[in-house]
Design goal:
mainly beta, Lipocalin, 1 helix, single chain, 8-stranded antiparallel beta barrel
Length: 177
Amino acid sequence: MRWIIEGTHSNLEFRVRHLGISTVRGKFKVFDGNVEVGEDGRVESIEATVDVASIDTGVDQRDAHLRSADFFDVESHPTMFFKASDVETVSEHEYRVKGELSLRGVTKPVSFTVETTPVVKDPWGNDRTGVTASGKLDRKEWGLTWNQALEAGGVLVSDEVRFTLDLSLVVGAEVSV
């Protein structure tokens, strides 16, 4: 059974410490993906693609800098891609997902936790479930190394990036919303 991300009711958000004192939040507005589940209910595959140019932190100048070669270099690397290699069941609705994240021409292993909601039938007859995933990564591992030293010590942008995905998954390719 194929579950697809229904983008209208899904979010892919991140947060990064700025100046060591505040947290900048942002999101990617364009992404898609799917989860293949076997007859036995086990997850067989997970894949997701993100349009990196769709980054939105609410500040146009910062977003332009993030799209530049200093950070994501969207001209050369327009997409980010995730492919799961292992899904471990922790409890009935909790999983540990391991896979590879390809970003800016670099592919590295990542892992994160996932919680799901029970499957429901929506008002339009679609089977639907919710997925919340969270984790963190070190942006330098993918070549996002731009930074600026601060006069008082520390750096402008932390290396650690925390992310949260709140996804609505729907069975099938044609979805009514």
